[in-house]
Amino acid sequence: MSPTSEHRPTLAELERGLPFAERHIGPRPDDLARMLEVLGVDSLDALAARALPDTIRDDAPVGASLPAPVGEAEMLAELRELAGRNTVTVPMIGYGYHGTRTPSVIRRNVLENPAWYTAYTPYQPEISQGRLEALLTFQTMVSDLTGLPVAGASLLDEATAAAEAMTLLRRANRSTSPRFVVDADTVAQTVDVLRTRAEPLGIELVVADLGDGVLPEGEFFGMLLSYPGASGRVADPSALVEAAHGRGALVAVAADLLALTLLNPPGEFGADAAVGSTQRFGVPLGFGGPHAGYLSVGQRHARQLPGRLVGVSRDADGHYALRLALQTREQHIRREKATSNICTAQVLLAVMAACYGVHHGPDGLRDIATRTHRMAAVLAAGLRSGGVEIVHDAFFDSVLARVPGRADAVVAAAHDAGIALRRASDDEVGVATSEITTVAHLHAVWAAFGVTGVDVAALDGDTADALPAGLRRASEYLTHPTFHEFRSETALMRWLRRLADADLALDRTMIPLGSCTMKLNAAAEMEAVTWPQFADLHPLAPESDTAGTREMIDQLETWLADLTGYAAVSLQPNAGSQGELAGLLAIAAYHRSRGATDRDVCLIPASAHGTNAASAIMAGLRVVVVGTAPGGDVDLDDLHAKIAEHGDRLAALMITYPSTHGVYEAGVRDVCAAVHDAGGQVYVDGANLNALVGVARPGAFGGDVSHLNLHKTFCIPHGGGGPGVGPVAVAEHLAPFLPGRTPRSDGGVGPVSAARHGSPGVLPISWAYLRMMGLDGMRRATLTAVAAANYVATRLREHFPVLYAGADGTVAHECILDLRTLTKETGVTVDDVAKRLIDHGIHAPTMSFPVAGTLMVEPTESEDLAEIERFVAAMVSIRGEIDRVAAGEWPAEDNPLRNAPHTAACLADDKWDHPYPRELAAYPTGVTPGVHDRKVWPPVRRIDGAHGDRKLVCSCPPPDAFA
């Protein structure tokens, strides 16, 4: 403000500075005014009145519990105060979670690098080669260490990976038995999630003590062994595996990857699958998550593998290229027949774990494992020297000590010394060593047990290893050059930079993916993720140590409940898919509590996300599809017909609002009322919540339950396909059925993820976003997103038909561009347009969902007008090229669209026999002198996915494969 301005800012205004919302929201006031002028309205409120139906607008103070916004400094100060209420101890609890060191080069270049954390799932593989190579490295690492040839690109955590393995073994086995045997020496969180997932599928879980090597009587289709066991015990599982196979059962093994550097891998003793966590490979504890689970299988089960699988293929020039293989987005193709409802992974964490393996290499990992084991062996020997009984003679890193009646006293004494141990029972204490354990920690633990005066050097020399000789690993692992070439930090830094440069993330361009909400992940929001007070908390730490994190979680749950109009929220689901499942399980449990056990029909519109149908099946419900009206709304006549047909069997309706077609359906209250009148419940999918926050609440216009996507609406970054957080929000009558809130014996629903709060390590991001935005900022963000989508639709409508629109031709926060007629007339497909956008340096919108042959565009509120105009200009340019194909100037099979994307190598080739110039291929809209060149050079040309599926290769190929 100039000195001559009439208004002089107050000191309070000056001290407050620029509100965070002004940083988060892209369009400047003048730009927003221009956008609104194009839309024919004079304000965001006027746009809301035009676009949103009166039936959903909520005049109540939406989100009243959200405090007035603060700036970045104030928000960080509040977070530091919450962090200060946590007490970080040395984590020697174990039980599936271990202390680890994130190498600084990985923390700085991956976890804190927006080139990695702002990327999306690699559905455009030509501009995702870096992430795909890192995930292929992850798969290779897991495959090598488990001894099984095919590993997925990560799952959500160890417990859900075990559940996915259970259902995989059931699909893969011809056995008609419903029984699945679980080793009693398995961590409790895995058993609990297995129960949650087994019950609605009719799987009978048999938890059996297999310590004596004897299987339970009767038939069973599968078995899960733990190696090492939850107690720390290491035993040879080969006889049990052989016996199970003899009974016609398949076997999965929950294995510690670090232990497998020293122990025989599951694949070598006949296991059909291996599951576990890669957390101890450099991924912070984070109070339980996010962590990358893993699942590896034998070759014959590769096509049953759930989730993501990176495979090797070739591009248009025959060069090596990577892409997602086989079941890419299978939920949207197979819906209720999908093998799983998983539609994301834990990519960012899997990348970190893979980089940890590359950083240390096989020798380094073996050294870490050896040191960890020796610490445990010496610890046990010291306890024995003081008269403490050690329960197991063979163990890797977890020592179980028997102290009759003294467990609480020992744990308390250790805690006073700054060390957290595990109270296994009144009489037993578990102690786990790790990469970060020191000799000083051993002395502190001994002292807690009442053992003093231990001569560590002498004890070390006299103490043998505690691993059975017959289980010592002899086979090699991590033999690929990738795990040997980057020993120096310089080399590793450059490898990571090369991979990042092979990707296109939000740090370089808008990613206008419909239904995905790729908005700003502000640096201030991300800052607290690596603070030790949040990052280094063990999920089983005493409540007194975690007061700050739990208060943050309580506040976030309250704010989210208020913003959505519900009574309660659980942050436990660690992905949107798990939030969907939790919501449907709550509905099913509610009906059971009322004696309505026959209510098993779930109505799902044909346009719904494919995960909806897959989740319904996993919740034990039957899917009945409801048709779509010509305007994109739910077909009300078909809905009423289906309600009448299924009557007393109706359990729920799942709808997405605004609809997956990108419109606010005016009749949504009538839809909800019809379902309620029939005794059903309404599930409102929160995937499109970015069009509602601050202006309407699903819990107020008829929803009984919703899942929310914190990795969409509330700014947790997508991380290349994970982490995700999918809280479930419910009305008051469903609150007792939130996951883990009420005991199963009282009709409650069990946990849906391993940790009590899912992925609390990334929750400071959403907390910070809400704290800095406030209610007014959230409302502005929502309406700016709606304005941006309508601006794109208006600017492009004359070039590409907008498939669906609501009142006065408006859309919600996304719009669908229809290319089907153009494809029929010219042969140019949505794939051609998507790949040509790469030549413009822009990530493509969502392709062929929810309607084949279309592009769904969601600009979000964070993109400024210049970037939106760049996208519009690219699409207009592409339409001009389509017209030239239509006019016969270029052949349908040889034009800039069909040949896109163009690499620098193909343009530099001496042979150029295309009917368009190289300059047009490289620079579709030309280069303006004096303007920074934003050219993005894709590393590969269009990839042949079918070739890679026919010849499936899902681990790093040897160097001679490139000859």
Automatic annotation (TrEMBL):
The modification N6-(pyridoxal phosphate)lysine is found at K712. It catalyses: N(6)-[(R)-lipoyl]-L-lysyl-[glycine-cleavage complex H protein] + glycine + H(+) = N(6)-[(R)-S(8)-aminomethyldihydrolipoyl]-L-lysyl-[glycine-cleavage complex H protein] + CO2. It comes from the Bacteria. Belongs to the GcvP family. GO terms for cellular component: cytosol; glycine cleavage complex. InterPro entries: GcvP, GDC-P_C, GDC-P_N, GDC_P, PyrdxlP-dep_Trfase, PyrdxlP-dep_Trfase_major, PyrdxlP-dep_Trfase_small. GO terms for biological process: glycine decarboxylation via glycine cleavage system. Its EC number is 1.4.4.2. Its cofactor is pyridoxal 5'-phosphate. GO terms for molecular function: glycine binding; glycine dehydrogenase (decarboxylating) activity; pyridoxal phosphate binding. Residues 781-902 form the Glycine dehydrogenase C-terminal domain. The glycine cleavage system catalyzes the degradation of glycine. The P protein binds the alpha-amino group of glycine through its pyridoxal phosphate cofactor; CO(2) is released and the remaining methylamine moiety is then transferred to the lipoamide cofactor of the H protein. The keyword Thylakoid does not apply. This is Glycine dehydrogenase (decarboxylating). Residues 22-449, 459-741 form the Glycine cleavage system P-protein N-terminal domain. The glycine cleavage system is composed of four proteins: P, T, L and H. Keywords: Oxidoreductase, Pyridoxal phosphate.
